[in-house]
Amino acid sequence: MGNTVKNNKAEDNIENYSNEALFCDLGLYHKVHVDCTDFEHTSQQDYDSKYGTEFTVYEIRYSKQFNRLINFMLDTKNVLMFCPLCNERLSFQLDTVPLSKELKDPFLDGYADYQIDDELYTSEVYRMSERIRSIISENGMFDKLIRCTHDSSHVFKFSYMLQKEGTYPNEFLTLTKIGQYPSIRDLNIGNIKPYQKLLKKYKKEYTTALELHSAGIGIGSFVYLRRIIEVLVENAFSKAVKDGKITKDEYEDEKVRERIKLLRDYLPPFIVDHTHIYKILSKGIHELDEEECNDMFPVLKKSIDFILDEEIEIQTREKDVNETSKKLGQMNSQNTIV
Ligand SMILES: [Zn+2]
Fold first, then answer.
1. Cβ distance 11 to 70 under 8 Å?
2. Distance from residue 73's CA to the centre of ligand 1 (Å)
3. pTM above 0.85, yes or no
4. Which of 167, 180, 216, 247 gives 29 a disulfide partner, CB atoms 3.0 to 4.6 angstroms apart?
5. What is the average per-residue pLDDT within 67-76?
């Protein structure tokens, strides 16, 4: 389960995760890449008043991804999340992770343009390597605590591990979540709460997908996300048959992506516009490994969230239309209107 990270496999990197995603979406034991050597270069003009000359100062700082890691550890800005104990979405305060002064400073090296011809070679890679060693020895395992602003006894803990990968001068880090309370499932109950009544049929698939993803079982989670689409399509088919818009033969002859197009009037627009979601999920199940599926999970889960939101809108409207139509019928039969 994702125990190896290839050096070139940088697509699932820490910059793809907001703080909230690092708490609520990142599955346990799934490694996230933190590039350390794609340094940020800045330059600025300076003036030497003694000699009356202008020169350029170059500075080399942490890579964007290493900076993101440091910011996540230090960040104290509130995040809006579902509190399973309060049972609503609330602001959480973040505790900072204690870091040494050296690690907090993103500056690695600097030089002026007139020094370039000198035999001065930049040492940013070496200095970065030292920082990597420092962060591993000081914070190789760290906890991020967050506190519910509604009730100070609601303190949640997320534990992470940092590991050095690669060899000098191509070292990088991986961030792995190794524990958390509450579970990913409980933190996401807020997302499925509105679905529970109207979308009972999908609840089991949805929560199982989250549970499997949080346990690092990527392919299994895809099976359940795909199942949500299949159930949606089956329900749309039943409605379309009832309306006389489609026959069983027409439906059974088609592949799922074609069925979605045939049933476009009965399905949430997001799935109609993105029929390839089904293809991606199927490809994951048949061809990809656990790690690749886990990398793709957050975007696919978000897509399913959009689809279920739209399905709720459709169902709510249908219910309203039916009730209003029934009331109008009653008024008409009671002859209360002349
Ligand atoms: Zn709370």
1. no
2. 22
3. no
4. 216
5. 98
